[in-house]
Amino acid sequence: MENAGKVIAELGLGLWSEFIYILPYLAIGVFLEAIVRTMKWHVKIRHALTRFGAYAIVLATLLGVISPLCACATLPLVISLLVAGLPLAPAMALLITSPLMSPAGYTLLSWELGPLWANTVVVSAVLFGLFAGYVTLFLRRYGFTEEVIFKNTLPSGDFHDPDYPVEELRCDCGKQLSHRVNRCTHNKLLVFLAKFWEGMFKIGKFALLGVFIEVLAVQFIPTAWVSSILEGQGLLPIFALTFATIPLHLPQVTAAAMLYGFVSPEFGEGIQLSRGAGIALLVGGPVTALPVMALFIAMFKKRVLALYLAICISGTLILAMGYRALPFF
After folding, report:
1. Rounded distance, CA 137 to CA 144, Å?
2. 52: phi > 0 → left, psi -120 to 50 → alpha, else beta; which?
3. What torsion, rounded to 10 degrees, do the Cα atoms 198, 13, 245, 311 define?
4. In the chain, how many domains are there?
5. DSSP character for 150?
6. Which of 48, 172, 187, 270, by CA, is between 20 and 30 Å from 178?
7. 3-state class of 141 per DSSP?
């Protein structure tokens, strides 16, 4: 019992110390996201997507980079845009890009892994979005069009309506604190503070989860084994991490916080994260998640899920191996 108590105390101390260390940068990122959400800049750009024709893929990719939404929150939005007339190609670009970068994600990545990694993930997100969009656009001639991708015809109506008949797509954002504050006060400062609180809770729990996974890994998994994967320069770590993260719900802030414990010389092992393995985890982890795939299975035909997974896996491998092969950095 004494040993168990000591282990629990060490875990708790490590978790608390690392979370407090990243907390200021988490707050800065959430602050920036709260501004974006309060001013509704991402919503205004999103509404313009259906009017930009061939440029919609580029716009959707750029929107995804600044969007504060993860994969699970982006998919219902993408479905609503498809119903509103957005072609499948820019919808796929938005779905792929949005989980990869956000204001909070960039701030945390810059602090935890350094500006080089943060900028690399931004570039990777843009390239990934363009890749997803233009591959999907090419496949239109083979039947991948928005008219035939759903299993059943979706009822018309607003997903934000509490009576919308498809429960999986029904949005409950009206219950959020910020929406209640807006309905009661229409005061932008109070709405901003409410959105900041929501963001701290939502993003903070994912960052805390990443730190918790890292602390557990350091405590119970042989450090040399984990380090060999993260520092590995060959192709095996890239393939291992790419396929291992497919079923995981690993938001970017979780992946970054988890890696921080191994890379940081102050709190972690001080390892040198390899370029290929880093991209495989930071890019491959966020784009695939079991909840997303479950909604794909419920809403779309099987070949759409196959296309999504094929893009996620091939895009991750191309980016990871491409970054690994660069002669500079």
Report:
1. 8
2. alpha
3. 40
4. 1
5. B
6. 48
7. helix
| Alpha-carbon gap, residue 194 to 197, rounded angstroms | 5
Do 99 and 286 contact (CB within 8 A), yes or no? yes
**pLDDT band at 28; cut points 50, 70, 90:** low
Q: The domain containing residue 137 runs over which residues?
A: 2-325
- Dihedral over Cα of 265, 267, 272, 273: its sign: negative
- CB-side neighbour CA atoms (13 Å) of 36: 21
Q: What is the mean pLDDT of the chain?
A: 76
| Phi-psi domain of 145 (left: phi exceeds 0; alpha: psi -120 through 50; beta: other) | beta
Q: What is the pLDDT of residues 221-269, one digit of tens each?
A: 555 667 788 887 888 889 988 998 887 777 777 788 778 777 765 655 6
Neighbours of 328 (CB within 10 A): 3
Q: Of 288, 280, 282, 286, which Cα lies nearest the Cα of 318?
A: 280
Rg (CA), the chain: 20
Residue 183, CA atoms < 13 Å, CB-side half-sphere = 8
Nearest to 235 by CA among 280, 197, 199: 280
Q: Are the C-beta atoms of 92 and 128 separated by less than 8 Å?
A: no
The residue behind tokens 């999103």 is: 46
What is the pTM for the complete model shown? 0.77
Contact by Cβ (8 Å): 48, 56: no
261, two tokens: 């414990």
Q: How far is CA 213 from CA 26, 80, 216, in A?
A: 18, 34, 5
The dihedral region occupied by 191, where left means phi > 0, alpha psi between -120 and 50, and beta the remainder, is alpha
Instruction: Check: CB of residue 86 under 8 Å from CB of residue 120.
Output: no
Phi, psi for 160 (deg, rounded to 5)? -80, -10
